[in-house]
Amino acid sequence: MTSSSTVLLERDATGVATIRLNRPERLNAMNDELLDRLVECVERTVDDPAVRVIVVTGVGRGFCVGGDLQGFKDDGAKPGPTPEEQYAALRKRVHLIELLRASPAASVAAVNGACAGAGLGLALACDLRVAREGAVFRSAFLAAGLSGDFAGSWLLTRMLGEAKAKEIYLLDHKISAAEAARLGMVTAVHPAVRFETEVQALAARLAATAPIALANIKRNLADASNLSLADFCDVESQRHIDSYRTEDRAEAAAAFLERRTPVFSGR
C-alpha cells in the first residue's frame, strides 16, 4: 500500500487497484494535497499494465463532497493566484477525469456516503457506480456560487439526458441512493454490512475478464455517441478482429469446450 495523509493506494494480486480518499473528518473534501495525490494515484494506475480494475472510494462516512470550501477560502492574508494560474491548476487536476474515461482498465466508484460537487464528477467518470444504503448524491455547485468542474455536467448529460441533468444541477436537490439506482446513475445499492464485500466481488468479476476485449468494449461505447454509424462500424469491426486474434479469445473458446473457467492473460 502507498499512502499519504490524504490518499491511500493499494493493488492486489488480481490486478485490482483501490484508491481511497482519506480525509474522513471532512467527508473527503478535496484540498490541494488531496487533489494532487489523487491525480498522482490515477496516473500511476492507468499507466500500470498489470491493473485491470480501478476502484475509487472514500474512507469514513463520505465518498467525496467536492472542494473543501473552508480550505479554499481567500482570507486576504497573502496575494492569491492569478485567474490564469487558477485555470492551469484546475485543468491539470480535471485531467484525471479524462484519464479514467480513457483507461483500458475498468473503473468502479464505490460510493460509501455523501457524493457532491467534484466528487459527483469523479464518481460519474468511472465506468460503474455502486452505492451504500444511505449514500446521497448532489451537484452542490449552485449553492456555492459556482458553475461546476470535474466534467460532472458533461458526464451527467450523456448519462441521463439534458433535461434531467438540468434538473439536478439547477434545482440542486439531494438524490438518495435508491433514486440514483432508479435513474440509472448507479448499478446497485447495498446495505452497509455487505458493501465492502459486494464491491470486492464486482471488482473481482471485472478483473477476471479478458483485458483486451474489455478495453475495446470501453472504446466502442465511448465512440458510439461521437462517430457516424459508418465510421463507428469501421472501428468496431477492427476492434472485433483485433480481439478475435488474441490468445484470450482462444482461451475463452477452449474453456467453453472444456467446461471450465477461463484464465485470461491479457494477450
From TrEMBL:
Belongs to the enoyl-CoA hydratase/isomerase family. PANTHER family: EG:BACN32G11.4 PROTEIN (PTHR43459:SF1), ENOYL-COA HYDRATASE (PTHR43459). It comes from the Bacteria. Keywords: Isomerase. Its EC number is 5.3.3.18. InterPro entries: ClpP/crotonase-like_dom_sf, Enoyl-CoA_hyd/isom_CS, Enoyl-CoA_hydra/iso, Enoyl-CoA_hydra_C. SUPFAM superfamilies: ClpP/crotonase (SSF52096). This is 2-(1,2-epoxy-1,2-dihydrophenyl)acetyl-CoA isomerase. CDD domains: crotonase-like (cd06558). GO terms for molecular function: isomerase activity. The keyword Isomerase applies. Pfam families: ECH_1 (PF00378).
